[in-house]
Amino acid sequence: MVEPRDLFSVRGKVACVTGASSGLGQRAATVLAQAGAQVVGVARRAVALSDWQATIGDNAHAVVFDISDRNALGDLAQEVAKPFGPPDIVIHAAGINTRQAADDVTPEGWDRTMDLNLSAPFFLSQHLVPAMKAKGWGRIVNFASLQTTRAFPGGIAYGATKAGIAQLTRAMAEAWSPHGITANAIGPGFFPTELTAAVFDDPNRANRNAAQTCIGRNGTPQDLDGPLLFLCSDASAYVTGQTLMVDGGYTAK
């Protein structure tokens, strides 16, 4: 039986975090490392990823990789297992939002959005799950969005992928939770990141979004920490297939 003080512990676990070069992905990678996990950060931008690794130290490792190439995800799964062993935890935080209006969506933009936001979380997980099954323990955390259930201007491709993430999460849970692997998603509200720079650069728009929440403010990076550790630890052992909205109550109003 896990002691209450250890319920949220990830000490000694190995985590793989995509999108670790910036934003909420980097926050997730940092929080897990600070909590005692050995973390492999994956992203395309080598310099930003290297800078992150340098700030964390020995329990961090950087892998420069474009996860939108689904045919290479098997190679990535082998690569992320090299420094610390096969991951116990995988966080799918990498994402793209082309912000193309419905009439302007291009096949190229659509395909890249689908590949990065929806296909990569499934196929990378598929490659990592066998090692989790062998241990009888694993945690998959996908990134959903306000657009999982809401339609925003210029978000038709992005929103389609994030709605898909909710169902993907449920399907992952159905397939893999009998083996001790939980699959859940975090749905962030408005947090200051590169993806939301246009929102926060407009004070009026940012204030309107804050007013839409029940709490009355937009998110800060620290607001992600508790929900993330919950979903990555034994504290959530009987929680699977769920999307936890971390949005200050935005979707409750």
Automatic annotation (TrEMBL):
Stored PANTHER family: SHORT-CHAIN DEHYDROGENASES/REDUCTASES FAMILY MEMBER
Keywords, in A-Z order: Plasmid
A Pfam family: adh_short_C2
Homology family: Belongs to the short-chain dehydrogenases/reductases (SDR) family.
Gene3D superfamilies in alphabetical order: NAD(P)-binding Rossmann-like Domain (3.40.50.720)
TM spans (from-to): none
The protein, known as: SDR family oxidoreductase
Top-level taxon of the source organism: Bacteria
InterPro entries per record: NAD(P)-bd_dom_sf, Sc_DH/Rdtase_CS, SDR_fam
